[in-house]
Amino acid sequence: MLLWNHDELATSQRQARLQRAWAAVALVLFAATWRLWTPQELFPQVPLLAPIRNVPAWFDWLGAVGIVVGLLLSLAFGARRFLGRAGLWVFAGSAAAMFVFDQHRLQPWAYQFVLIAVVLSSRDGLRSFCLLRWLAIAIYFWSALGKFDHTFLHGVGQQFLAVITNWFGLTIDVVPPPARLFLACVFPTGELIVAVTLGFQPTRRFGFVGAVFLHVMLIAVLGPWGLNHQLGVLVWNVFFLVQAWFLFGPTIQTPLTSSNQQTVSRAVARIRGWGTAETLIAMAIMLPALEPWGYWDHWMSWGLYSTRAERVEVQIHPLAVFRLPVELRAFVREPKSSDDWHVLEIDRWSLSTLRAPVYPQARFQLGVAEAVGIQNDLGGLIQAIHWGPSNRWSGARTRTVHRGVGAIQQASDDSWLNGRPRIGRTTNHGDWRFRAK
Known about the structure:
Number of helices: 15
Order of helices and strands: HHHHHHHHHHHEHEEHHEEH
Protein backbone atom coordinates (compact mmCIF):
# COMPACT_ATOMS: atom_id res chain seq x y z
CA MET A 1 0.00 0.00 0.00
CA LEU A 2 1.03 3.65 -0.26
CA LEU A 3 2.86 4.70 2.86
CA TRP A 4 3.57 8.11 4.30
CA ASN A 5 7.18 8.99 5.07
CA HIS A 6 8.38 11.80 7.28
CA ASP A 7 9.71 13.37 4.06
CA GLU A 8 6.10 14.36 3.44
CA LEU A 9 6.12 17.04 6.11
CA ALA A 10 6.64 19.35 3.12
CA THR A 11 3.48 18.18 1.31
CA SER A 12 1.54 21.37 2.08
CA GLN A 13 4.07 23.38 0.07
CA ARG A 14 4.09 20.79 -2.71
CA GLN A 15 0.29 20.81 -2.70
CA ALA A 16 0.21 24.56 -3.34
CA ARG A 17 2.68 24.16 -6.20
CA LEU A 18 0.76 21.22 -7.62
CA GLN A 19 -2.45 23.24 -7.52
CA ARG A 20 -0.87 26.11 -9.42
CA ALA A 21 0.57 23.72 -12.01
CA TRP A 22 -2.82 22.01 -12.30
CA ALA A 23 -4.57 25.35 -12.82
CA ALA A 24 -2.05 26.52 -15.42
CA VAL A 25 -2.34 23.32 -17.48
CA ALA A 26 -6.15 23.36 -17.14
CA LEU A 27 -6.29 26.91 -18.51
CA VAL A 28 -4.26 25.81 -21.53
CA LEU A 29 -6.50 22.79 -22.13
CA PHE A 30 -9.72 24.76 -21.81
CA ALA A 31 -8.32 27.44 -24.12
CA ALA A 32 -7.36 24.79 -26.69
CA THR A 33 -10.93 23.43 -26.70
CA TRP A 34 -12.77 26.67 -25.90
CA ARG A 35 -15.57 26.14 -28.41
CA LEU A 36 -16.58 22.96 -26.59
CA TRP A 37 -17.23 24.98 -23.42
CA THR A 38 -19.38 27.71 -24.95
CA PRO A 39 -22.98 27.56 -26.27
CA GLN A 40 -21.65 26.66 -29.71
CA GLU A 41 -23.76 25.59 -32.67
CA LEU A 42 -20.98 23.98 -34.67
CA PHE A 43 -21.66 20.49 -33.33
CA PRO A 44 -24.78 19.02 -31.66
CA GLN A 45 -24.94 19.08 -27.86
CA VAL A 46 -26.36 16.07 -26.01
CA PRO A 47 -27.04 16.63 -22.27
CA LEU A 48 -26.61 13.86 -19.72
CA LEU A 49 -30.17 14.31 -18.44
CA ALA A 50 -33.31 14.78 -20.55
CA PRO A 51 -34.73 17.84 -18.69
CA ILE A 52 -31.51 19.74 -19.46
CA ARG A 53 -32.39 19.72 -23.17
CA ASN A 54 -34.37 22.91 -22.63
CA VAL A 55 -31.75 24.83 -20.60
CA PRO A 56 -31.05 28.22 -22.28
CA ALA A 57 -27.66 29.10 -23.70
CA TRP A 58 -26.75 31.62 -21.00
CA PHE A 59 -26.27 28.70 -18.58
CA ASP A 60 -23.30 27.64 -20.71
CA TRP A 61 -21.79 31.10 -20.47
CA LEU A 62 -22.27 31.06 -16.71
CA GLY A 63 -20.49 27.71 -16.48
CA ALA A 64 -17.65 28.83 -18.78
CA VAL A 65 -17.09 31.98 -16.70
CA GLY A 66 -17.12 29.88 -13.51
CA ILE A 67 -14.45 27.57 -14.92
CA VAL A 68 -12.13 30.44 -15.87
CA VAL A 69 -12.65 32.37 -12.64
CA GLY A 70 -12.09 29.24 -10.55
CA LEU A 71 -8.86 28.39 -12.35
CA LEU A 72 -7.54 31.95 -12.12
CA LEU A 73 -8.22 32.05 -8.37
CA SER A 74 -6.51 28.68 -7.93
CA LEU A 75 -3.52 29.84 -9.95
CA ALA A 76 -3.19 33.10 -8.07
CA PHE A 77 -3.75 31.98 -4.48
CA GLY A 78 -2.81 28.28 -4.33
CA ALA A 79 -4.19 25.78 -1.84
CA ARG A 80 -3.42 27.54 1.42
CA ARG A 81 -5.71 30.55 1.14
CA PHE A 82 -9.47 30.93 1.24
CA LEU A 83 -9.72 32.33 -2.30
CA GLY A 84 -7.58 29.52 -3.64
CA ARG A 85 -9.90 26.93 -2.12
CA ALA A 86 -12.97 28.84 -3.24
CA GLY A 87 -11.56 28.78 -6.78
CA LEU A 88 -11.31 25.00 -6.64
CA TRP A 89 -14.95 24.62 -5.64
CA VAL A 90 -16.12 27.16 -8.21
CA PHE A 91 -14.22 25.30 -10.92
CA ALA A 92 -15.44 21.85 -9.84
CA GLY A 93 -19.08 22.94 -9.62
CA SER A 94 -19.01 24.82 -12.92
CA ALA A 95 -17.29 22.02 -14.81
CA ALA A 96 -19.66 19.39 -13.38
CA ALA A 97 -22.64 21.49 -14.51
CA MET A 98 -21.11 21.80 -17.97
CA PHE A 99 -20.79 18.01 -18.14
CA VAL A 100 -24.53 17.74 -17.50
CA PHE A 101 -25.34 20.35 -20.16
CA ASP A 102 -23.34 18.45 -22.79
CA GLN A 103 -21.75 15.05 -22.18
CA HIS A 104 -19.30 15.76 -25.00
CA ARG A 105 -17.46 17.87 -22.40
CA LEU A 106 -16.76 14.78 -20.30
CA GLN A 107 -13.31 14.59 -21.85
CA PRO A 108 -11.11 12.31 -19.72
CA TRP A 109 -8.75 15.13 -18.80
CA ALA A 110 -11.65 17.35 -17.70
CA TYR A 111 -13.09 14.52 -15.59
CA GLN A 112 -9.68 13.96 -13.97
CA PHE A 113 -9.21 17.68 -13.30
CA VAL A 114 -12.56 17.93 -11.52
CA LEU A 115 -11.60 15.00 -9.28
CA ILE A 116 -8.28 16.68 -8.51
CA ALA A 117 -10.05 19.95 -7.69
CA VAL A 118 -12.37 18.24 -5.21
CA VAL A 119 -9.46 16.51 -3.48
CA LEU A 120 -7.32 19.65 -3.25
CA SER A 121 -10.24 21.71 -1.94
CA SER A 122 -11.27 19.14 0.67
CA ARG A 123 -8.05 17.68 2.04
CA ASP A 124 -4.61 18.92 3.04
CA GLY A 125 -1.18 17.41 2.90
CA LEU A 126 -0.98 13.70 3.57
CA ARG A 127 -4.58 12.82 2.78
CA SER A 128 -4.78 14.80 -0.46
CA PHE A 129 -1.54 13.31 -1.77
CA CYS A 130 -2.63 9.79 -0.85
CA LEU A 131 -5.94 10.21 -2.69
CA LEU A 132 -4.29 11.76 -5.74
CA ARG A 133 -1.73 8.95 -5.82
CA TRP A 134 -4.44 6.32 -5.83
CA LEU A 135 -6.24 8.18 -8.60
CA ALA A 136 -3.09 8.36 -10.72
CA ILE A 137 -2.37 4.66 -10.16
CA ALA A 138 -5.96 3.77 -11.10
CA ILE A 139 -5.66 5.73 -14.35
CA TYR A 140 -2.50 3.85 -15.31
CA PHE A 141 -4.03 0.50 -14.27
CA TRP A 142 -7.35 0.80 -16.12
CA SER A 143 -5.71 2.42 -19.14
CA ALA A 144 -3.27 -0.49 -19.38
CA LEU A 145 -5.98 -3.10 -18.89
CA GLY A 146 -8.07 -1.56 -21.67
CA LYS A 147 -5.19 -1.88 -24.12
CA PHE A 148 -4.88 -5.65 -23.72
CA ASP A 149 -7.44 -5.83 -26.46
CA HIS A 150 -7.55 -7.03 -30.06
CA THR A 151 -8.45 -3.59 -31.46
CA PHE A 152 -5.55 -1.82 -29.73
CA LEU A 153 -2.94 -4.47 -30.44
CA HIS A 154 -3.90 -4.64 -34.12
CA GLY A 155 -4.76 -0.95 -34.52
CA VAL A 156 -3.45 1.95 -32.43
CA GLY A 157 -0.66 -0.21 -31.01
CA GLN A 158 0.59 -0.88 -34.54
CA GLN A 159 0.45 2.86 -35.30
CA PHE A 160 2.60 3.58 -32.23
CA LEU A 161 5.02 0.88 -33.34
CA ALA A 162 5.18 2.26 -36.88
CA VAL A 163 6.18 5.70 -35.57
CA ILE A 164 8.95 4.25 -33.41
CA THR A 165 10.37 2.05 -36.18
CA ASN A 166 10.32 5.07 -38.49
CA TRP A 167 12.63 6.92 -36.08
CA PHE A 168 15.26 4.29 -36.89
CA GLY A 169 14.75 4.58 -40.63
CA LEU A 170 12.74 1.35 -40.83
CA THR A 171 9.19 0.47 -41.80
CA ILE A 172 6.90 -1.70 -39.76
CA ASP A 173 6.67 -4.13 -42.67
CA VAL A 174 10.19 -5.41 -41.95
CA VAL A 175 8.95 -6.76 -38.59
CA PRO A 176 7.18 -10.15 -38.80
CA PRO A 177 3.49 -10.02 -37.79
CA PRO A 178 3.92 -12.17 -34.63
CA ALA A 179 6.76 -9.90 -33.50
CA ARG A 180 4.66 -6.81 -34.24
CA LEU A 181 1.89 -8.15 -32.04
CA PHE A 182 4.35 -8.94 -29.26
CA LEU A 183 5.91 -5.49 -29.46
CA ALA A 184 2.46 -3.86 -29.35
CA CYS A 185 1.89 -5.68 -26.06
CA VAL A 186 4.89 -3.83 -24.63
CA PHE A 187 2.89 -0.58 -24.43
CA PRO A 188 0.14 -1.76 -22.04
CA THR A 189 2.59 -4.02 -20.19
CA GLY A 190 4.85 -1.07 -19.43
CA GLU A 191 1.89 1.00 -18.30
CA LEU A 192 0.73 -1.80 -16.00
CA ILE A 193 4.21 -2.10 -14.50
CA VAL A 194 4.16 1.65 -13.80
CA ALA A 195 0.83 1.29 -11.98
CA VAL A 196 2.04 -1.60 -9.83
CA THR A 197 5.42 -0.12 -8.93
CA LEU A 198 3.89 3.23 -8.01
CA GLY A 199 1.58 1.45 -5.59
CA PHE A 200 4.33 0.25 -3.24
CA GLN A 201 6.73 2.39 -1.31
CA PRO A 202 9.88 0.28 -1.98
CA THR A 203 9.35 0.39 -5.77
CA ARG A 204 7.92 3.87 -6.04
CA ARG A 205 11.11 5.43 -7.41
CA PHE A 206 11.17 2.87 -10.24
CA GLY A 207 7.52 3.60 -10.96
CA PHE A 208 8.29 7.32 -11.05
CA VAL A 209 11.07 6.81 -13.61
CA GLY A 210 8.77 4.54 -15.61
CA ALA A 211 5.97 7.11 -15.60
CA VAL A 212 8.32 9.84 -16.82
CA PHE A 213 9.62 7.60 -19.61
CA LEU A 214 6.05 6.58 -20.54
CA HIS A 215 4.82 10.14 -21.01
CA VAL A 216 7.96 11.35 -22.75
CA MET A 217 7.49 8.51 -25.25
CA LEU A 218 3.79 9.33 -25.67
CA ILE A 219 4.59 12.98 -26.34
CA ALA A 220 7.15 11.91 -28.93
CA VAL A 221 4.81 9.39 -30.62
CA LEU A 222 1.73 11.64 -30.57
CA GLY A 223 3.54 14.90 -31.33
CA PRO A 224 4.24 16.66 -34.65
CA TRP A 225 7.10 14.26 -35.40
CA GLY A 226 4.77 11.29 -34.92
CA LEU A 227 1.01 10.95 -35.28
CA ASN A 228 0.49 14.73 -35.00
CA HIS A 229 -2.42 14.60 -32.57
CA GLN A 230 -4.22 17.63 -31.16
CA LEU A 231 -2.37 20.03 -28.87
CA GLY A 232 -4.60 19.09 -25.93
CA VAL A 233 -3.32 15.49 -25.98
CA LEU A 234 0.28 16.66 -25.68
CA VAL A 235 -0.50 19.19 -22.94
CA TRP A 236 -2.33 16.52 -20.92
CA ASN A 237 0.72 14.28 -21.10
CA VAL A 238 2.86 17.17 -19.90
CA PHE A 239 0.54 17.45 -16.90
CA PHE A 240 1.09 13.76 -16.12
CA LEU A 241 4.82 14.48 -16.02
CA VAL A 242 4.26 17.38 -13.60
CA GLN A 243 1.88 15.29 -11.51
CA ALA A 244 4.36 12.41 -11.33
CA TRP A 245 7.02 14.77 -9.99
CA PHE A 246 4.82 16.18 -7.23
CA LEU A 247 3.12 12.92 -6.21
CA PHE A 248 5.86 10.35 -6.69
CA GLY A 249 9.09 12.25 -7.27
CA PRO A 250 12.02 12.71 -4.90
CA THR A 251 11.40 14.71 -1.74
CA ILE A 252 13.59 16.36 0.86
CA GLN A 253 14.10 14.13 3.87
CA THR A 254 13.16 15.81 7.15
CA PRO A 255 14.75 14.28 10.25
CA LEU A 256 12.22 13.18 12.84
CA THR A 257 12.33 15.25 16.02
CA SER A 258 9.93 15.39 18.93
CA SER A 259 8.24 18.48 17.49
CA ASN A 260 7.77 17.34 13.88
CA GLN A 261 6.86 13.83 15.06
CA GLN A 262 3.90 15.46 16.79
CA THR A 263 3.16 17.27 13.53
CA VAL A 264 3.04 13.94 11.69
CA SER A 265 0.83 12.43 14.39
CA ARG A 266 -1.63 15.32 14.17
CA ALA A 267 -1.62 15.09 10.36
CA VAL A 268 -2.35 11.36 10.47
CA ALA A 269 -5.11 11.97 12.99
CA ARG A 270 -6.73 14.51 10.66
CA ILE A 271 -6.91 12.09 7.75
CA ARG A 272 -9.34 9.76 9.49
CA GLY A 273 -12.91 9.90 8.31
CA TRP A 274 -14.65 9.70 4.95
CA GLY A 275 -15.96 12.59 2.90
CA THR A 276 -16.84 13.76 -0.59
CA ALA A 277 -13.28 13.51 -1.88
CA GLU A 278 -12.85 9.94 -0.68
CA THR A 279 -16.20 8.92 -2.16
CA LEU A 280 -15.47 10.38 -5.60
CA ILE A 281 -11.98 8.91 -5.76
CA ALA A 282 -13.31 5.49 -4.68
CA MET A 283 -15.90 5.68 -7.48
CA ALA A 284 -13.28 6.74 -10.03
CA ILE A 285 -11.12 3.78 -9.00
CA MET A 286 -13.75 1.03 -8.77
CA LEU A 287 -16.57 1.87 -11.20
CA PRO A 288 -14.44 1.31 -14.34
CA ALA A 289 -14.86 -2.40 -13.57
CA LEU A 290 -18.47 -2.00 -14.78
CA GLU A 291 -17.50 -0.61 -18.19
CA PRO A 292 -17.50 -3.99 -20.04
CA TRP A 293 -21.20 -4.38 -19.17
CA GLY A 294 -22.13 -0.87 -20.26
CA TYR A 295 -22.78 0.56 -16.78
CA TRP A 296 -19.89 3.03 -16.83
CA ASP A 297 -18.63 5.14 -19.72
CA HIS A 298 -15.48 4.33 -21.65
CA TRP A 299 -13.63 7.58 -20.96
CA MET A 300 -14.68 7.61 -17.31
CA SER A 301 -13.12 4.14 -17.18
CA TRP A 302 -9.82 5.62 -18.37
CA GLY A 303 -10.04 3.92 -21.76
CA LEU A 304 -7.20 5.99 -23.25
CA TYR A 305 -6.01 5.32 -26.81
CA SER A 306 -8.24 2.24 -26.77
CA THR A 307 -10.72 1.84 -29.63
CA ARG A 308 -12.74 -1.04 -28.23
CA ALA A 309 -15.65 1.21 -27.17
CA GLU A 310 -19.01 1.08 -28.91
CA ARG A 311 -19.54 3.57 -31.72
CA VAL A 312 -22.14 4.77 -34.18
CA GLU A 313 -21.62 5.19 -37.90
CA VAL A 314 -23.88 7.90 -39.31
CA GLN A 315 -24.85 7.28 -42.93
CA ILE A 316 -26.66 9.54 -45.38
CA HIS A 317 -28.56 8.29 -48.43
CA PRO A 318 -26.94 9.36 -51.74
CA LEU A 319 -30.11 11.25 -52.71
CA ALA A 320 -30.01 13.32 -49.50
CA VAL A 321 -26.37 14.42 -49.30
CA PHE A 322 -27.22 17.65 -51.14
CA ARG A 323 -29.53 18.60 -48.23
CA LEU A 324 -26.59 18.93 -45.89
CA PRO A 325 -24.94 22.35 -45.47
CA VAL A 326 -21.78 22.84 -47.51
CA GLU A 327 -19.74 23.00 -44.29
CA LEU A 328 -21.09 19.62 -43.19
CA ARG A 329 -20.53 17.97 -46.55
CA ALA A 330 -16.80 18.42 -46.00
CA PHE A 331 -17.00 15.60 -43.46
CA VAL A 332 -18.91 13.18 -45.70
CA ARG A 333 -16.85 10.24 -46.97
CA GLU A 334 -17.52 9.15 -50.51
CA PRO A 335 -18.78 5.54 -50.83
CA LYS A 336 -17.07 2.86 -52.87
CA SER A 337 -20.03 2.67 -55.28
CA SER A 338 -22.78 5.08 -56.25
CA ASP A 339 -25.43 2.89 -54.62
CA ASP A 340 -23.79 2.85 -51.18
CA TRP A 341 -24.74 5.21 -48.39
CA HIS A 342 -22.38 8.07 -47.63
CA VAL A 343 -20.70 8.15 -44.20
CA LEU A 344 -20.75 11.34 -42.14
CA GLU A 345 -17.47 11.18 -40.18
CA ILE A 346 -18.58 12.67 -36.89
CA ASP A 347 -15.20 12.05 -35.26
CA ARG A 348 -13.47 14.21 -37.87
CA TRP A 349 -16.28 16.76 -37.63
CA SER A 350 -15.77 17.05 -33.87
CA LEU A 351 -11.98 17.38 -34.11
CA SER A 352 -12.22 20.00 -36.85
CA THR A 353 -14.83 22.24 -35.21
CA LEU A 354 -14.25 21.76 -31.47
CA ARG A 355 -10.63 20.51 -31.34
CA ALA A 356 -11.86 17.60 -29.22
CA PRO A 357 -12.54 13.93 -30.02
CA VAL A 358 -16.15 12.81 -30.19
CA TYR A 359 -17.57 11.28 -27.00
CA PRO A 360 -17.27 7.47 -27.42
CA GLN A 361 -20.72 6.38 -26.25
CA ALA A 362 -23.48 5.22 -28.59
CA ARG A 363 -26.16 7.30 -26.85
CA PHE A 364 -24.22 10.51 -27.55
CA GLN A 365 -23.47 9.62 -31.15
CA LEU A 366 -27.10 8.62 -31.74
CA GLY A 367 -28.02 12.08 -30.47
CA VAL A 368 -25.67 13.60 -33.03
CA ALA A 369 -27.30 11.52 -35.78
CA GLU A 370 -30.77 12.62 -34.63
CA ALA A 371 -29.74 16.30 -34.68
CA VAL A 372 -28.40 16.00 -38.23
CA GLY A 373 -31.53 14.17 -39.38
CA ILE A 374 -33.95 16.68 -37.85
CA GLN A 375 -32.14 19.81 -38.92
CA ASN A 376 -31.79 18.69 -42.52
CA ASP A 377 -35.23 17.07 -42.79
CA LEU A 378 -33.73 13.70 -43.73
CA GLY A 379 -36.54 11.50 -42.42
CA GLY A 380 -35.77 7.96 -43.57
CA LEU A 381 -32.75 9.05 -45.59
CA ILE A 382 -30.43 8.81 -42.62
CA GLN A 383 -29.40 5.73 -40.70
CA ALA A 384 -27.23 5.05 -37.69
CA ILE A 385 -25.30 1.79 -37.50
CA HIS A 386 -24.55 0.92 -33.88
CA TRP A 387 -21.38 -1.13 -33.53
CA GLY A 388 -21.15 -2.69 -30.09
CA PRO A 389 -17.94 -2.92 -28.03
CA SER A 390 -15.33 -5.10 -29.66
CA ASN A 391 -14.64 -8.57 -28.37
CA ARG A 392 -11.40 -8.40 -26.39
CA TRP A 393 -9.95 -11.51 -28.11
CA SER A 394 -11.31 -11.38 -31.65
CA GLY A 395 -12.26 -7.73 -32.21
CA ALA A 396 -15.72 -8.78 -33.43
CA ARG A 397 -18.62 -6.35 -32.88
CA THR A 398 -22.38 -6.61 -32.97
CA ARG A 399 -24.12 -4.54 -35.64
CA THR A 400 -27.54 -2.90 -35.33
CA VAL A 401 -29.06 -0.62 -37.98
CA HIS A 402 -31.46 2.19 -36.98
CA ARG A 403 -32.91 3.61 -40.18
CA GLY A 404 -34.72 6.92 -40.10
CA VAL A 405 -34.93 9.67 -37.47
CA GLY A 406 -37.74 7.89 -35.61
CA ALA A 407 -35.75 4.68 -35.22
CA ILE A 408 -32.72 6.66 -34.06
CA GLN A 409 -34.83 8.46 -31.45
CA GLN A 410 -36.24 5.17 -30.22
CA ALA A 411 -32.74 3.71 -29.88
CA SER A 412 -31.67 6.79 -27.91
CA ASP A 413 -34.62 6.42 -25.56
CA ASP A 414 -33.47 2.92 -24.66
CA SER A 415 -30.39 4.34 -22.94
CA TRP A 416 -30.47 4.84 -19.16
CA LEU A 417 -28.98 8.31 -19.67
CA ASN A 418 -30.17 10.91 -22.14
CA GLY A 419 -29.27 10.41 -25.79
CA ARG A 420 -31.38 13.18 -27.32
CA PRO A 421 -29.83 16.44 -28.59
CA ARG A 422 -30.27 19.78 -26.88
CA ILE A 423 -33.11 21.89 -28.25
CA GLY A 424 -34.79 25.27 -27.93
CA ARG A 425 -31.86 27.53 -28.79
CA THR A 426 -31.81 28.45 -32.44
CA THR A 427 -35.13 27.97 -34.21
CA ASN A 428 -38.79 28.57 -33.57
CA HIS A 429 -39.32 24.82 -33.67
CA GLY A 430 -36.65 24.17 -31.05
CA ASP A 431 -34.42 22.17 -33.38
CA TRP A 432 -30.66 22.20 -33.31
CA ARG A 433 -29.06 24.25 -36.08
CA PHE A 434 -25.62 23.81 -37.66
CA ARG A 435 -23.69 27.00 -38.25
CA ALA A 436 -20.41 27.46 -40.05
CA LYS A 437 -17.35 28.62 -38.21
